[in-house]
Each structure stands twice: as C-alpha cells, then as structure tokens.
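FORM 12-B: Structure-to-Sequence Request
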C-alpha cells in the first residue's frame, strides 16, 4: 500500500515569555493510503499539534512532512493554502457549520471557494450528504439537525474535495454514544473506500474503530497498537501496562 503521509524528525516548539515548550520532539510518523489511525494521549502530549502539522495547518520548527509526494515544508503561504483546500479535509469537535447556510450549502462551500460552478457544487454536495445518510436533510439549517447529523454534515463537507487526508479532532467528543458510533462508522467507511483518516481522541471506544492506535506522551510517539482485534479493552490494557501511556 502507498505511503500517503510521511513525517520525519517532526518537531514543534512554542516560545512563551522567556521560555519554550516542546510540543513535538523529532516524531517519525507514516500513514498508508486508506488507513484509519487514531492518535491518543493526555492533554498536552502533542496530539493536536501533530494533526495540525501533518495537515499543513501549522508550520513545524524542524523536520519534514510529505503528503501525496508533496513536501509541505517547501511551500509558500499561497501554495499551502491551495494544498489545504484541495488535499486536506478537517472535521472539528464542534462542527463549525455556518448557521445561515443549509446542510447542502455548507457541504458545497469548499468547492465554491475553489471556483467550481455552483450547479456542480450543489450536485456534489447532495451526493456527499447521501453518502453519510443525510440525503433528506440537505435543505435544513444546522439548528434543525441533531449533533450527530451536524457532525456528519461536517464530514461530508470535509470529503467533498476528495482530499488525500481527512483530519478529525475529537469528532465524537460532543456527541452521545449512539451519534458518536454513527460518525465513527462514516469514518470507517471512508477509510475502506481509500480515504486516509487521522483522528485525535481521548476515548478508547472511539479509537477501537481505527486500524491503528498511536500513543503520544510529552511530544513523542511511545507506543502503538494495530488491528485486527482492536478493542477498547485492549487499548485500556495497553495504557495500564505502560506508565508512559496514560489512560
């Protein structure tokens, strides 16, 4: 399987009032096309920092990121913006839907911003909503949808440009168990269809839907688990077995 993402010696340092914080420390991280990877670790371990760096949402202090054969660290701001728009989809914990736009309009927005014809954007948006089980909700505003439905709209929006990489930052953190399971099943299905998914989560039950779980601690990858046979119990057992993989 093709390596779609390759991060080498990836580091990030934040400067603060006369001192610095090492958020990531020379991380080596590779992901195959169509792989669903969950990233776990305590607050401050570097999970979201890793997600932002590999998606071109932030610049590293050191190291390189290569996405689909393109080195992100060699791009200028305009090139990086274009790459993010076309090659990276992002799903947030709190959906980030525009409240005055319908579900279909929210989903179509990335293509509209990329200059594609409105009719094409609308048709593609309806297709993506159908793929996440929301074909009948395309004309509704976000406040008319449940939390789980809003998150599936957000996933459809992230996937409409058919990006090389889908980033999901705590996508089930604001959902009940049933809605969260629906969202995770959508992400699993996307991965089975060849989409590469990286998901940050604190929840072992959510992480168990992935093909691989990567554990971060103090800015370093300290362990990982692979399927088949991933389960919340197995993830919790691995956390308990190692003091540097906190629950």
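FORM 12-B RESPONSE
SEQUENCE OUT:
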């Amino acid at each position: 399987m093709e390596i779609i993402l390759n991060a080498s010696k990836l580091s990030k340092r934040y400067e603060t009032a006369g001192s610095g914080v090492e958020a990531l420390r020379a991380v080596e991280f590779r992901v195959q096309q169509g792989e669903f990877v969950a990233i776990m670790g305590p607050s401050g371990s570097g999970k979201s920092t890793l997600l932002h760096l590999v998606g071109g949402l932030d610049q590293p202090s050191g190291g390189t990121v290569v996405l689909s054969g393109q080195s992100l660290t060699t791009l200028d701001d305009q090139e990086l913006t274009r790459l993010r728009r076309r090659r990276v989809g992002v799903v947030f914990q709190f959906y980030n839907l525009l409240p005055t736009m319908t579900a279909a309009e929210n989903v179509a927005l990335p293509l509209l911003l990329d200059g594609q014809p409105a009719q094409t954007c609308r048709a593609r948006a309806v297709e993506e909503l159908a793929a996440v089980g929301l074909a009948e909700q395309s004309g509704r505003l976000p406040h008319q949808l449940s939390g789980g439905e809003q998150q599936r709209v957000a996933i459809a929006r992230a996937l409409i440009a058919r990006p090389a990489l889908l980033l999901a930052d705590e996508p089930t953190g604001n959902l009940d168990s049933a809605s969260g399971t629906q969202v995770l099943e959508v992400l699993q299905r996307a991965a089975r269809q060849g989409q590469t998914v990286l998901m940050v989560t604190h929840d072992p039950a959510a992480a168990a839907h992935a093909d691989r779980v990567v554990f971060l601690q103090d800015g370093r990858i300290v362990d990982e688990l692979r399927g088949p046979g991933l389960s919340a119990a197995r993830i919790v057992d691995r956390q308990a077995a190692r003091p540097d993989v906190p629950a």
